[in-house]
Specification:
Helices cover 38% and strands 30% of the residues. By secondary structure, the chain is α/β, with parallel strands linked by helices. The structure holds adenosine-5'-diphosphate and magnesium ion (MG).
Length: 335
């Protein structure tokens, strides 16, 4: 649905060209939740803003539904922006308008509905984001989570096909973050809306994204299904984020901590393999003890996963073969 081809973007900084996007190419499918993760200054917002041309790339193509949007004229661009909703970190609400008034605003700008139709649409949106009770309140009377619900309702007002979220939960506490993420997921599955979200938080990507791209210094350094990228990071930038995240962090240091306990394997279980008594079966079959040294279990969106560091005294190839036959991915960890 969205296809980015060789995007470059530079900003003039102190009289020099600073490269914010460096040859970015990506494909995002209709109906998926696609995450773009990277550190502060990596180029995330610049990249997101090229999708609705709030930022115009120096070169490269942005194809949305096979149309090169960089070639649109002013009228075409207005049409495009109505098809794309955007949600911001700091909500960007109009303080002198009520909740209902904020949600109504993009409907007024679009000028396609009668006042009665607009009121009906606002009611629908209030219901969708769970704010029917707060419709007459002003932004200053709302919690952060409620403000973001208004931001989401406003972004959805004109039935966009694509929703862009720029750090939509970064100003919220962890619990509120989870409730906003649940809302985004619900909207994605109920409306079939494609969502592209950028974030510096791995927990956000783990919770709702189908696929993720990692951006570092303006380049996409790796991308793929979230479980693949986060459980088997190939680029140093991703490895560093994974390590800081804590979910798999300790695992990479296990070798140093447990160097004297047999040979070390890192085992990754996903989906069905997480439900099977694989370790006890293999231990019994080969008649050797398998020591679990470190590990983490959790979920990536709906996929259960486990990742363990185990110590093995015995024939490593036989152990590997028995585990791999049961769908467990094995990697040797250097001691
Ligand atoms: N309008 C601008 N003028 C000059 N430099 C900018 C401008 N916008 C962003 N940058 C620079 O481009 C880089 C990427 O910025 P941004 O896309 O906002 O990163 P992120 O959203 O990942 O934090 C940063 O180094 C930032 O300072
Ligand atoms: Mg940003």
């Amino acid at each position: 649905m969205i296809s980015l081809h060789h995007l470059y973007k530079t900003y003039p900084v102190n009289g020099q060209a600073y490269t914010a996007l460096n040859d970015v190419s990506l494909d995002i499918a209709q109906g998926e939740i696609f995450g773009i993760i990277g550190r502060s200054g990596a180029g995330k917002s610049t990249l997101l803003r090229t999708l609705n041309l709030l930022e115009r790339p120096d070169s490269g193509q942005v194809l949305i539904a096979d149309q090169d949007v960089t070639a649109l004229d002013a009228a075409g661009l207005r049409g495009l922006r109505q098809q794309i909703g955007m949600v911001f970190q700091h909500f960007n609400l109009l303080s002198h308008r009520t909740v209902a008034g904020n949600i109504r605003f993009p409907l007024e700008l679009a000028g396609q509905l009668s006042p009665v139709e607009m009121d009906a649409r606002v009611d629908e949106l209030l219901e969708l984001v769970g704010l029917s009770q707060q419709q007459a309140q002003y932004p200053s009377q709302l919690s952060g989570g409620q403000k973001q619900r208004v931001g989401i309702a406003r972004a959805l007002a004109n039935h966009p096909k694509l929703l862009l979220c720029d750090e939509a939960t970064s100003a919220l506490d962890p619990q509120t973050t989870q409730s906003i993420l649940a809302l985004l997921r619900d909207i994605n599955s109920r409306l079939g809306l494609t969502i592209v979200l950028i974030t510096h938080e791995m927990a956000v990507v783990r919770a709702i994204c189908d696929r993720v791209a990692v951006i570092d210094h303006g380049r996409i350094v790796e991308h793929g299904p979230v479980a693949e990228v986060f459980l088997h990071p190939s680029h140093e930038a991703t490895r560093n984020m994974v390590a800081e995240d804590g979910h798999a962090a300790a695992l990479d240091h296990a070798g140093r901590l447990y160097a004297n306990i047999g040979q070390l394997l890192r085992l990754t279980f996903v989906d069905d393999a997480t439900y099977e008594p694989v370790l006890s079966e293999v231990g019994r079959e080969l008649d050797l003890p398998i020591r679990i040294l470190q590990g983490s279990v959790g979920r990536i969106k709906d996929r259960p996963y486990g990742q363990l560091i185990v110590g093995i005294d015995g024939e490593l190839p036989a152990v590997r073969a028995a585990l791999e036959a049961r769908g467990v991915r094995c990697e040797e960890v250097a001691a």
